[in-house]
Amino acid sequence: MAETDPVFPLDSEKVYYSMDELTLDTEEGPKTLRVGAWLNFDPVRIHRMIVREKTMQVDQFEVYNPLMSKLRRADQQYYKQFMGLGLTIDFPGYTSEILARIPFENDPISFYKWWRKGKHE
Hints:
Elements: E1 15-16, E2 21-26, E3 29-34, H1 35-41, H2 43-52, E4 57-58, H3 60-74, H4 76-83, E5 88-89, E6 98-99, H5 101-106, H6 108-116
Parallel strand pairs: 1-4
Antiparallel strand pairs: 2-3, 5-6
Helix pairs in contact: 1-3, 2-3, 3-4
């Protein structure tokens, strides 16, 4: 980043949209990108800032929904851990994918056996 490049620090009071500029520290130093580009560059970091640290507010439709889609593809392990029982799974006995919570609550023993066999991967 050049000396004359504008810096857009994180504002925890602002609601960010995909075209808003944001400067974050990276391994290469401060980097300024549009929020939409940050979703591609580091979706896990952006998600943590929104959900865990609660230091960033974003528009649900323009930023958060695309973020969840990109997160699923970028880091499946993190996505599964975050979603927990809200993850959709292909469980035996159901005609389509369902929330993991349904078989977990209705038939926990079968769910546990299915999970231990690694069918969820």
